Amino acid sequence: MDIKQLDEFAKEIIFEAGKNIRAAFSYNIEIETKSNPNDLVTNIDRETELFFIEKIKAFNPDHRILGEEGMGETVNNLKGVVWIIDPIDGTMNFVKQHRHFMITIGVYVDGVGVLGYIFDVMREDLFNAIAGEGAWYNDSPLRKLQPVKIEEAVIGINANWVTPNTRINHEKIIELVQTVRGTRSYGSAAMEIAFVVSGKLDAYMSMRLAPWDIGGGVIIAKEVGAIATNLDGKDFDYLSKDTFLIANPSIHQLILDKYIEEKK
Ligand code: IPD
Ligand code: CA
Ligand code: CA
């Protein structure tokens, strides 16, 4: 397989999809809810996923697509070439803020991540990686992450996890929040991952993410030395939902050991 050619093709369709999404603001965006009133989807999420499926199948009909909106085939394993796609990550930002939403894609060959993309649609900013060759931000190489002390770290975390909840001991998270230099919450997992791989955040965690939220980002993470696991410190489960922590390598284990206590 010609990885460079695949990379060029992926970038081309990501930029085209981005252009289509930006144009969508000039006509009606139809908003629906999915699993709960805060789980949003729009006609643009679906149209964008369909756009990718059509383009990828025309490029190579053997490639399979695991997309958030489920418009491709059912994917139960990662054999062959699988594109893991979130057509819009941060749909709430898309409908409410008209910014801070990403297209994110990971291309896997027999379960191994080879190409990763996070594209900030409104800023037209691309974070991408080719496994083993490096990672880039708009064509400038991303550097390996430098060590950071926990007291100087800025972490991405949703405010829900410092309130009593069923998934995690929030007292420990309060301790974490009080220890670090600052916290941020951007409303797009892919954006927070893009910020960790480029050193704008030092960690990001979530209690429940899907493969398409992180499938592109973890490939970029590897190239800069960021560590991405679930909250048990194991590999993320790509065929279901899982907890997630991506961090600078100097604080990843410390966060798991000292501040994470899951309720199971
Ligand atoms: C969501 C965003 C959000 C994260 C949610 C995801 P969506 O993705 O990444 O930041 O907290 O868990 O589901 O639904 O906007 O693609
Ligand atoms: Ca998502
Ligand atoms: Ca989405």
Structure at a glance:
With 264 residues, the chain is an alpha+beta fold. It contains eight helices and 14 strands.
Describe the structure in your own words.
This protein has 264 residues and is an alpha+beta fold. It has 8 helices and 14 strands. The protein folds into 2 domains: 3-141, Fructose-1,6-Bisphosphatase, subunit A, domain 1 (Fructose-1,6-Bisphosphatase, Chain A, domain 1, 2-Layer Sandwich), CATH 3.30.540.10; 150-259, D-Maltodextrin-Binding Protein, domain 2. Strands 3-4-5-6-7-8-9 form a 7-stranded mixed sheet, sandwiched between helices. Strand 1 (31-33) and strand 2 form a beta hairpin. It is globular. 42% of the residues are buried. The structure holds D-MYO-inositol-1-phosphate (IPD) and calcium ion (2 copies). Residues 68, 86, 89, 189, 212-213 line the site of one calcium ion (CA).
Q: Order of strands across the biggest sheet?
A: 3-4-5-6-7-8-9
Helix content: 25-40%
Main β sheet profile: 7 strands, mixed
Name given to the CATH architecture of the largest domain: 2-Layer Sandwich
Q: What's the number of domains?
A: 2
Ligands bound, unique: D-MYO-inositol-1-phosphate, calcium ion
Percent strand: 25-35%
